Each structure stands twice: as C-alpha cells, then as structure tokens.
Amino acid sequence: MIESEDAVKVLEAIADNLSSVAKNKQNFVRLPDKFWGYFARGHDSKDRKFGVIITYSEQEGNVDQLIEMYEQWVAKEKQ
To answer: pTM value?
Structure first.
C-alpha cells in the first residue's frame, strides 16, 4: 500500500513536471492539431514507479479508446 507521504511526493513530482512543460510554448510547437499525448514517469523514495498520461483529441473516441486500453491492461494485470 502506498504511504500518504509517498503519494504526496508522487503528485508533487507530476505537478512540478507538468507545470514546467506547460510554461514552455516550445514544447507544443510541433504537436499535431487533432490528436496528441504527453507522458511522464518517475519513482518514489522506495523506488516504486509511477506514471501519468495526458491525451488530447478533437475526437472524443480517441481518448475513450486509450482509457479503455488502459482499463483492459489493469484488469489483466490484476489476475
């Protein structure tokens, strides 16, 4: 089980990373207009891994499909 201190550190790392990415418009210059994503990963003080995926699409189905793929992967890994 993740400890509350580690959960805070994970979310702080994600927020700091996303904030620095968002403040630099150059990070978004070459993005396709219709569909793109951003991912980041890291680890906590006990070297447990975490990741975040952000997806944008002009077509809602693209985002729904990615979420569905993730949910299927999670269900498979729990077995």
So the answer is: 0.56
Q: What distance in Å separates the CA atoms of residue 26 and residue 20, rounded to the nearest whole number?
A: 11
Question: What is the per-residue pLDDT across 6-60, written as a single tens digit (0 to 9) for each?
Answer: 888 878 878 887 888 888 888 777 776 777 777 777 777 778 788 888 888 888 8
Mark residue 47 as left, alpha or beta (left: phi above 0; alpha: psi -120 to 50; beta: remaining).
Answer: left
In what helix (H) or strand (E) does residue 57 lie, and over which residues does it extend? strand 49-57
Half-sphere exposure for 26 (CA within 13 Å, toward CB): 2
**Residue 16: C-alpha distances to residues 11, 13, 21, 39 (Å):** 8, 5, 9, 14
